[in-house]
């Protein structure tokens, strides 16, 4: 019975502090996205966070559980913020509501609430939206440099009404770099594709800067020891390796490792999604395998699968493997001989 | 449809299935002969879960006969000394529904005590004791070996002078266990009462 | 010598300067002491005095009961006022007159004499577990011991008792270590001490050169990291040996002692003083004169704390032991015992109560700090689900309850409390199972005995009948197939014989492995098999009698 607690003597954060630190660390990424895509990003995040808190409170009341401590730990808010940050700017309010409902009610609370969900709630919400509403989920406007016009465009109004914005639909359906590369066609060589200026001016650099902003937030989390380095390093490492293999095999058709690292949700996923402790593996070895699995799956789905990005699916698939990873990476306790220890669990416990 | 219909197809399907049936039937038959177990291990498993007080409150002369009866399909809920814990363990083992205890639950672990001044030395309790926990001889005072007594109270009824009491058994301090709240179904069902450390 | 590493560990705030600034003092004599009969591991001692007896300091008041137990001595001179199942109360007469034993010399006196003194001095480990010292000193009979490890790590925050002992009595502690080393045959003594006790280290360094015989003493300064004072962790750190799971340090040739125990052992031998007082750290923000004090055993905690300036209005809780492994007191009437090394009178800001427990988020922090390399979080799930077989697979019983996991848990889950509960539950279950197994064997034996008696009765009757009817001739012939009967009975008899042999073998093998143990259950099983054999013999005899009776009509 320890009378001292690390978080009470300032040696480590408590669960609620952990969640708040992660939320704080999303700010650079969200800021960068706002810079390029307008206030629709901020409204997404705020709306999703609000919906998440409301959904959590309602389901806790239905489940007859104390509401205040569960809301106080900020875990629902974090899920909302993470989900909001991966939606296209100024998504319709109902889209956000559906995603948050899937994340909080289905993926989290129906499994028993915080600590009991096998799948990452934000990614369950995102994957559901991506499969159910593909049109809305690909409405990424081309990034623009910061100005009053880009900040307040009429898409914000569309978010409130809940329809597609009536005008500028063409302008809105600008592809992300991953989208564009995915649909370049088999006959087109990579060098030709890039030479043809497939994306509006500055798109690539905008996405790269957003990714670097997420990286900055993630590094803060690692430095503050909120997350351990194992999963991001394993995930980014395996992505680089697999992408390099593809690229080395056929540079004319496959994208470079750097392209994979700096586009899409790679860095956001590596530091903010895959590291969710509840749905990730726990022991160091298991974390490395888990991260490497996500990285491998991301590249495989991106290059060979039907979706341009795959962080959500890769994370969910590896979530499935976590119980197995945890069972097979049990460390050898002290005082047990290295060879043939019968008391060690073999196979499912 | 008519073109693809053929007797050969039907016959071959029937033939293959029959063949498979014969082969696997033979395999199963051989296995059941070859690996036949000498005695029913299920009875042993059931017996291991029973409290072995040998009290006979289930209506059988001892725990093993009741274990055999359960194996034959008797109800699980006839063992008062075992209580709910035993019923649940048996239900788990046999994949049956746990039923509430049939009869009054044993309130606590008890032990027989012979008021020795009143004992007339009739040996009736000695004959009744299923675990030979009473010593004494005819016309001599009897006494209970406390450590061997299972608290089955089978000795109480035969005593002609009613000199046997069932007393609560004293537990050593080392077996102390703190009180815990009722079992929760899932971990998140735990009530949020906070720590219950004693305060001064 | 290089330092080795044990896994995990934490760096809690030390807070040792509260109590290690003041020199060692003696606490005022209490007016009344309550001496619990069980202050040590093993059986409680049996009182050997009566209410109203006058005793002196050091008078024997309760004798050890069985091997693993310890004598108990009066810690003040006065009158016995109360004896209960749990404790003996003595009221002081204010004289403080002593009754000591004749002094011995640990260098020259025989080991038997010294062991007897450790026993009669009522010595038990003063570090926390309270294992009787004389038993521990005899361990060399079964295991060769090469190294005595002096556990001066004192890794828990707040506690400075060993620190002050080493500063005040470095020579005595080293002599005590030599005494124990001589008894257990260790050629080497290693003192493991954390680097946060510079004064104690320099005191030891000064004393070391004079006391290097018969065993050589090495001082080993280790990094301050909780729980380096755990027996297994310290042995790993200074010797790089792993104590096997479920085993003892003696299994790998090491013995671990606390400096306080060594000091008490030397006092018992050299000065003939039984264990009646010990050094206790009195600390915490609500004490005005914190420090280390010589305290008579049995002194009520409340009296003791008041004598060092307790501020009751600021007091939040009193903790016995350190903040990591200690327990909060529910009443200040509890006495100081042989294992009380520290009392923390904490204010609410100093050791605040843990906030409400929140769900486990599987962060794995507990796993990284576990010095036993267990999976605290998995243990937590399964302990709450009462899944005992899985807990055993996850080596719950290797948990040393150091509290590192509870310390780092961001959700404030009282993990160690869960484990203690689960361990106790499993222990009780094992006791229950053993009991019912025992009853089963006794029942089977009784059944066999009754069957044998019945069979013998029948056989005798048949024999009588045969004798009576021999002249009359002509049997009633109610045995339809005597040959078949005989054959099956012979088979039964052979099976019974085999069963007896098997039971004998099992018993012999068990007795060989552990000659000191008693095997009641195995003996009962053997007796049951013998009864069955006798019954088979009797049945066979009866059947033979009836066949001969038929064949000779």
UniProtKB/TrEMBL annotation, chain A:
<dbReference type="GO" id="GO:0055085">
    <property type="term" value="P:transmembrane transport"/>
</dbReference>
<feature type="transmembrane region" description="Helical">
    <location>
        <begin position="286"/>
        <end position="304"/>
    </location>
</feature>
<keyword id="KW-0597">Phosphoprotein</keyword>
<comment type="similarity">
    <text>Belongs to the NqrB/RnfD family.</text>
</comment>
<dbReference type="InterPro" id="IPR004338">
    <property type="entry name" value="NqrB/RnfD"/>
</dbReference>
<keyword id="KW-0813">Transport</keyword>
<keyword id="KW-0997">Cell inner membrane</keyword>
<feature type="transmembrane region" description="Helical">
    <location>
        <begin position="230"/>
        <end position="248"/>
    </location>
</feature>
<keyword id="KW-0472">Membrane</keyword>
<feature type="modified residue" description="FMN phosphoryl threonine">
    <location>
        <position position="176"/>
    </location>
</feature>
<feature type="transmembrane region" description="Helical">
    <location>
        <begin position="45"/>
        <end position="63"/>
    </location>
</feature>
<feature type="transmembrane region" description="Helical">
    <location>
        <begin position="123"/>
        <end position="141"/>
    </location>
</feature>
<feature type="transmembrane region" description="Helical">
    <location>
        <begin position="70"/>
        <end position="87"/>
    </location>
</feature>
<keyword id="KW-0249">Electron transport</keyword>
<dbReference type="GO" id="GO:0022900">
    <property type="term" value="P:electron transport chain"/>
</dbReference>
UniProtKB/TrEMBL annotation, chain B:
<keyword id="KW-1278">Translocase</keyword>
<feature type="domain" description="4Fe-4S">
    <location>
        <begin position="38"/>
        <end position="96"/>
    </location>
</feature>
<keyword id="KW-0408">Iron</keyword>
<dbReference type="GO" id="GO:0005886">
    <property type="term" value="C:plasma membrane"/>
</dbReference>
<feature type="binding site">
    <location>
        <position position="55"/>
    </location>
    <ligand>
        <name>[4Fe-4S] cluster 1</name>
    </ligand>
</feature>
<dbReference type="InterPro" id="IPR007202">
    <property type="entry name" value="4Fe-4S_dom"/>
</dbReference>
<feature type="binding site">
    <location>
        <position position="129"/>
    </location>
    <ligand>
        <name>[4Fe-4S] cluster 3</name>
    </ligand>
</feature>
<keyword id="KW-0997">Cell inner membrane</keyword>
<keyword id="KW-0479">Metal-binding</keyword>
<dbReference type="InterPro" id="IPR050294">
    <property type="entry name" value="RnfB_subfamily"/>
</dbReference>
<keyword id="KW-1133">Transmembrane helix</keyword>
<feature type="transmembrane region" description="Helical">
    <location>
        <begin position="6"/>
        <end position="28"/>
    </location>
</feature>
<dbReference type="GO" id="GO:0009055">
    <property type="term" value="F:electron transfer activity"/>
</dbReference>
<feature type="binding site">
    <location>
        <position position="63"/>
    </location>
    <ligand>
        <name>[4Fe-4S] cluster 1</name>
    </ligand>
</feature>
<keyword id="KW-1003">Cell membrane</keyword>
UniProtKB/TrEMBL annotation, chain C:
<feature type="binding site">
    <location>
        <position position="402"/>
    </location>
    <ligand>
        <name>[4Fe-4S] cluster 2</name>
    </ligand>
</feature>
<comment type="function">
    <text>Part of a membrane-bound complex that couples electron transfer with translocation of ions across the membrane.</text>
</comment>
<feature type="binding site">
    <location>
        <position position="370"/>
    </location>
    <ligand>
        <name>[4Fe-4S] cluster 2</name>
    </ligand>
</feature>
<keyword id="KW-0411">Iron-sulfur</keyword>
<keyword id="KW-1278">Translocase</keyword>
<dbReference type="InterPro" id="IPR019554">
    <property type="entry name" value="Soluble_ligand-bd"/>
</dbReference>
<feature type="domain" description="4Fe-4S ferredoxin-type">
    <location>
        <begin position="390"/>
        <end position="419"/>
    </location>
</feature>
<feature type="binding site">
    <location>
        <position position="360"/>
    </location>
    <ligand>
        <name>[4Fe-4S] cluster 1</name>
    </ligand>
</feature>
<dbReference type="GO" id="GO:0022900">
    <property type="term" value="P:electron transport chain"/>
</dbReference>
<keyword id="KW-0813">Transport</keyword>
<keyword id="KW-0408">Iron</keyword>
<dbReference type="InterPro" id="IPR011538">
    <property type="entry name" value="Nuo51_FMN-bd"/>
</dbReference>
<dbReference type="Pfam" id="PF01512">
    <property type="entry name" value="Complex1_51K"/>
</dbReference>
<feature type="binding site">
    <location>
        <position position="405"/>
    </location>
    <ligand>
        <name>[4Fe-4S] cluster 2</name>
    </ligand>
</feature>
<keyword id="KW-0249">Electron transport</keyword>
């Amino acid at each position: 019975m320890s009378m001292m607690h690390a978080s009470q003597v300032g040696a480590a954060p408590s669960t609620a502090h952990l969640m708040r630190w992660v939320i704080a660390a999303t700010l650079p990424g969200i800021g960068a996205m706002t810079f390029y895509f307008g206030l629709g990003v901020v409204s997404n995040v705020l709306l999703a966070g609000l919906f998440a808190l409301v959904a959590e409170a309602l389901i806790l009341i239905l489940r007859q559980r104390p509401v205040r401590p569960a809301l106080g730990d900020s875990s629902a808010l974090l899920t909302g913020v993470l989900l909001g940050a991966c939606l296209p700017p100024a998504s319709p309010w109902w889209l956000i509501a559906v995603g948050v409902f899937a994340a909080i009610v289905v993926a989290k609370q129906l499994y028993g609430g915080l600590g009991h969900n096998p799948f990452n709630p934000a990614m369950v919400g995102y994957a559901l939206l991506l499969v159910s509403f593909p049109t809305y989920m690909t409405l990424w406007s081309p990034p623009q440099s910061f100005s009053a016009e880009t900040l307040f465009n009429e898409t914000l109004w569309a978010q409130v009404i809940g329809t597609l914005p009536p005008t500028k639909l063409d302008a809105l359906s600008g592809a992300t770099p991953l989208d564009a590369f995915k649909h370049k066609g088999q006959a087109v060589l990579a060098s030709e594709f890039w030479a043809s200026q497939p994306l509006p001016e500055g798109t690539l650099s905008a996405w790269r800067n957003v990714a670097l902003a997420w990286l900055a937030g993630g590094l803060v989390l690692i430095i503050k020891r909120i997350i351990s380095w194992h999963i991001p390093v394993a995930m980014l490492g395996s992505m680089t390796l697999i992408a390099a293999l593809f690229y080395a095999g056929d540079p004319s058709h496959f994208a470079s490792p750097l392209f994979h690292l700096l586009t899409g949700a790679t860095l956001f996923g590596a530091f903010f999604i895959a590291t969710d402790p509840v749905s990730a593996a726990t022991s160091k070895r298991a974390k490395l395998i888990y991260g490497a699995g996500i990285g491998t799956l991301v590249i495989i789905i991106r290059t060979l699968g039907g979706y341009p990005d795959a962080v959500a699916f890769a994370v969910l698939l590896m979530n499935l493997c976590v119980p197995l990873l945890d069972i097979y990476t049990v460390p050898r306790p002290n005082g047990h001989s290295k060879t043939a220890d019968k008391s060690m669990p073999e196979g499912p416990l | 449809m008519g073109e693809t219909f053929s007797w050969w197809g039907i016959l071959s399907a029937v033939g293959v299935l029959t063949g498979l049936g014969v082969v696997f039937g033979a395999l199963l038959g051989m296995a059941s002969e070859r690996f036949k177990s000498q005695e029913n291990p299920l009875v042993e498993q059931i017996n291991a879960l029973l409290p072995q007080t040998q009290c006979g409150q289930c209506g059988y002369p001892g725990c093993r006969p009741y274990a055999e009866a359960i194996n034959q399909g008797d109800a699980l809920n006839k063992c008062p000394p075992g209580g709910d814990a035993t019923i649940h363990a048996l239900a788990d083992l046999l994949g049956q529904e746990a039923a509430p205890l049939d009869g009054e639950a044993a309130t606590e672990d008890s032990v027989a005590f012979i008021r020795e001044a009143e004992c007339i030395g009739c040996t009736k309790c000695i004959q009744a004791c299923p675990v030979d926990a009473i010593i004494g001889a005819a016309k001599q005072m009897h006494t209970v070996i406390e450590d061997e007594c299972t608290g089955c109270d089978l000795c109480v009824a035969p005593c002609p002078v009613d000199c046997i009491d069932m007393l609560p058994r004293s537990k050593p301090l080392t077996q102390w266990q703190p009180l815990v709240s009722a079992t929760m179904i899932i971990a998140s069902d735990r009530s949020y009462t906070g720590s219950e450390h004693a305060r001064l | 010598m290089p330092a080795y590493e044990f896994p995990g560990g934490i760096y809690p705030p030390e807070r040792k300067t509260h109590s290690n600034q003041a020199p060692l003092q003696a606490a005022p004599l209490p007016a009344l002491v309550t001496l619990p009969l069980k202050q040590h591991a093993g059986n409680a001692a049996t009182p050997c005095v009566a209410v109203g007896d006058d005793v002196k300091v050091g008078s024997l008041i309760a004798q050890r009961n069985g091997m693993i137990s310890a004598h108990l001595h009066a810690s003040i001179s006065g009158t016995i006022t109360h004896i209960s199942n749990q404790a003996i109360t003595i009221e002081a007469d204010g004289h403080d007159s002593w009754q000591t034993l004749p002094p011995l010399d640990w260098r020259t006196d025989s080991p038997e004499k010294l062991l007897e003194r450790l026993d009669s001095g009522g010595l038990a480990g003063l570090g926390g577990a309270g294992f009787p010292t004389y038993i521990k000193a005899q361990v060399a009979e079964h295991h060769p011991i090469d190294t005595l490890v002096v556990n001066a790590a004192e890794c828990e925050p707040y506690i400075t008792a060993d620190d002050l002992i080493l500063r005040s009595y470095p020579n005595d502690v080293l002599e005590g270590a030599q005494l124990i080393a001589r008894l257990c045959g260790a050629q080497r003594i290693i003192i493991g001490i954390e680097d946060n006790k510079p004064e104690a280290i320099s005191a030891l360094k000064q004393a070391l050169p004079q006391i290097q015989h018969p065993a050589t003493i090495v001082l080993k300064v280790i990094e301050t990291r909780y729980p380096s004072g755990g027996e297994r962790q310290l042995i790993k750190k200074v010797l790089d040996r792993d104590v096997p799971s479920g085993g003892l340090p003696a299994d790998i040739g090491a013995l671990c002692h606390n400096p306080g125990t060594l000091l008490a052992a030397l006092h018992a031998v050299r000065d003939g003083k039984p264990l009646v007082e010990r050094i206790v750290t009195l600390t915490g923000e609500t004490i005005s004169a914190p420090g280390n004090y010589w305290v008579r055993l049995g002194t009520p905690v409340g009296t003791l704390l008041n004598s060092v300036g307790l501020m009751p209005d600021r007091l939040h809780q009193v903790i016995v032991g350190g903040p990591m492994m200690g327990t909060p007191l529910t009443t200040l009437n509890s006495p100081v015992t042989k294992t009380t090394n520290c009392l923390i009178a904490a204010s609410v800001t100093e050791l605040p109560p843990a906030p409400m427990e929140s769900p486990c988020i599987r962060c794995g922090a507990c796993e990284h700090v576990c010095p036993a390399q267990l999976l605290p979080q998995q243990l937590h799930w399964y302990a709450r689900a009462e899944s005992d077989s899985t807990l055993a697979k996850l080596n719950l019983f290797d948990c040393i309850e150091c509290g590192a996991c509870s310390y780092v848990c961001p959700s404030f889950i009282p993990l160690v409390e869960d484990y203690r509960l689960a361990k106790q539950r499993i222990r009780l279950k094992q006791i229950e199972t053993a009991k019912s197994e025992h009853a089963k064997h006794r029942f089977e034996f009784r059944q066999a005995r009754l069957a044998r008696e019945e069979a013998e009765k029948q056989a005798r009757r048949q024999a009588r009948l045969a004798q009576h009817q021999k002249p009359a001739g002509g049997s009633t012939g109610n045995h339809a197939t005597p040959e078949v009967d005989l054959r099956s009975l012979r088979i039964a008899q052979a099976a019974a014989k085999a069963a007896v042999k098997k039971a004998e073998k099992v018993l012999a093998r068990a007795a060989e492995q552990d000659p000191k143990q008693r095997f009641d259950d195995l003996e009962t099983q053997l007796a049951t098999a013998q009864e069955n054999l006798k019954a088979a013999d009797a049945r066979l005899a009866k059947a033979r009698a009836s066949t001969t009776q038929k064949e000779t009509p």
